[in-house]
Design a protein that fits this description.
Elements: E1 3-8, E2 13-18, H1 21-35, H2 40-43, E3 44-52, E4 57-63
Antiparallel strand pairs: 1-2, 3-4
């Protein structure tokens, strides 16, 4: 079994395949770090739903570093 991921460039796409899930994870982490990628879950622990509206859901989150 192979583990793929795709990089999308302005005028082309490239698919890379790895033999293990761990190897794929290491490459993805290195690429994310090199481009400065981060997401909400890197900084917050998101848990309960607080409410729901017409355009989205409000969730409870705790900042990981400052609590």
């Amino acid at each position: 079994m192979m583990f793929p991921f795709m990089l999308i460039f302005p005028n082309k796409r490239r698919i890379y395949y790895f033999k293990t899930k761990e190897e794929k994870g290491k490459w993805m982490d290195a690429i994310k770090q090199s481009i400065g990628y981060s997401n909400l879950y890197d900084f917050y622990d998101v848990t309960d739903n607080l409410g729901k509206g017409k355009y989205g859901v409000v969730k409870y989150a705790v900042h990981k570093r400052t609590k």
